[in-house]
Design brief:
Layout: E1 4-8, H1 12-21, E2 26-31, E3 44-47, H2 52-63, E4 67-70, H3 77-90, E5 94-97, E6 110-113, H4 116-123, E7 130-134, E8 149-154, E9 166-170, H5 177-186, E10 191-195, H6 204-212, E11 216-219, E12 229-230, H7 233-262
Parallel strand pairs: 1-2, 1-4, 2-3, 4-5, 5-12, 6-11, 7-8, 7-10, 8-9, 10-11
Amino acid sequence: MTARVLVLGGTGEARRLAEALVGRVHVVSSLAGRVGEPRLPPGEVRIGGFGGPEGLAAWLREARIDAVVDATHPFAAVISRSAATATAELGVPLLALRRPGWTEAPGDDWRRVPSLTAAADALRATPDARVFLTTGRKDLAAFADLPHRFLLRSVDPPEDPVPARLTVVLARGPFTVAGELELLRGYAVDVLVTKDSGGDQTAAKLTAARELGIPVLMVDRPAAPGTEAVGTVAEAVAWVERAAGNGRERSAGNSGERSARNGGERSEGE
């Protein structure tokens, strides 16, 4: 029996993991559906939420999932907590695939803040500053009452509430240092606000900010559940192969019990 693995995705790492796992296990990639035209990974794809930890647990049970990899964005705290709760309830193995955060380099001018609200508070001292926001289109409420001139970059248009003086650039990474230098100069950016997402896709803006002497407000990652975690796709593949082997053993031993319980039914930033 082929093991069934759920990859909670929406990131480049999740897509690469699905690509590596296709043919080894049955992969179901789950996307939140927040991007209009997402890059779909290979294998089976599910789009939309689960309805909290209870809904996720019910879906895992119905879909007969043997292992889960949480490869969501480092700031997707809600689904990560739901995954930890649901898998613990069912005894399903869970791994977090988390890209390392960014680290300051010589010449950087970073100020770390614990939240978007704290970033907005830090901006209040410089109301005339031109601010480049790369925090996501759904996180603008914290900045909506500020008088600053904001430049927002996102894949899709933002949702209200938004700042009154907002310019939107629709673009999808990866971005280059040359392109980021042109953008920062062209819009005369005074300060960059970003989340500590990590990875190479959007790191060029930090290099460009360093070269231009632009300060960065770096929003720290939210606390993560105490889940086993790795930092690379290769490590996640090795974990899945071990978990899949164990999952096949559990499935063989419990197939009759699960068929009776489930009626035999089978049935996803910067």
